[in-house]
């Protein structure tokens, strides 16, 4: 489908059924029934960091049941187990997801909370990453949520507490090694992610 989607044309609550009929030439996410336009062309630094992180995780998980995926990949987050697919009001495309339960994977992407979500933030997505998505991921039980700053070389890590709320964030800089808490024994050296070539 082609054309332009007018985000301001209605105050209605949109669903996954609406989402599937939106224009193919515009990347959108759906958070609590509200559509948000994604950046059409992420920066080169953004892409470098996404590639480095996903490659590192892919290598670490080669002999592990968990799987890593990069955007664009739809993650559908139902508000309850009985919610019909067409009525889902949360559909996001995180930069990187790690899924350890194969039952959550299908031909359309991921249905249910990934174990780890990584968002590489930018000025145009910061509000969503810090506020809307953090609340959404916490509400739906994403165990680990990273916000990565490709320019400032900072990683913020939120971990889901037993009470269903995020603790943190923990802050990590380029000199640090970040443990992937959902996968014991796996960690990422940020100096390898924020390499010199991402700064050029």
UniProtKB/TrEMBL annotation:
Pfam families: Uma2. Keywords: Endonuclease, Hydrolase, Nuclease. SUPFAM superfamilies: Restriction endonuclease-like. InterPro entries: Nuclease_put_TT1808, Restrct_endonuc-II-like, Uma2. The keyword Cell division does not apply. Gene3D superfamilies: tt1808, chain A. GO terms for molecular function: endonuclease activity. Transmembrane segments: none annotated. CDD domains: DUF820-like. It comes from the Bacteria. Residues 17-190 form the Putative restriction endonuclease domain. This is Uma2 family endonuclease.
């Amino acid at each position: 489908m082609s054309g332009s989607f007018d985000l301001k044309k209605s105050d209605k609550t949109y669903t996954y059924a609406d989402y599937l009929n939106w224009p193919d030439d515009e990347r959108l996410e759906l958070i609590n029934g509200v559509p948000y336009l994604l950046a059409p062309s992420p920066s080169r630094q953004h892409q470098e960091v996404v590639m480095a992180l996903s490659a590192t995780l892919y290598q670490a998980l080669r002999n592990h049941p968990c799987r890593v995926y990069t955007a664009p990949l739809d993650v559908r987050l139902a508000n309850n187990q009985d919610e019909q697919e067409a009525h889902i009001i949360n559909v996001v495309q995180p930069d990187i997801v790690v899924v350890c339960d194969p039952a959550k994977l299908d031909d359309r992407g991921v249905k249910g909370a990934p174990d780890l979500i990584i968002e590489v933030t930018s000025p145009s997505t910061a509000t969503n990453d810090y506020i809307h998505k953090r609340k959404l991921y916490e509400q739906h039980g994403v165990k680990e949520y990273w916000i990565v700053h490709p320019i400032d070389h900072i990683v913020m890590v939120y971990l889901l507490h037993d009470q269903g709320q995020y603790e943190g964030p923990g802050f990590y800089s380029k000199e640090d090694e970040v443990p992937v808490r959902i996968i014991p024994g796996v960690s990422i050296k940020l100096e390898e992610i924020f390499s010199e070539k991402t700064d050029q």
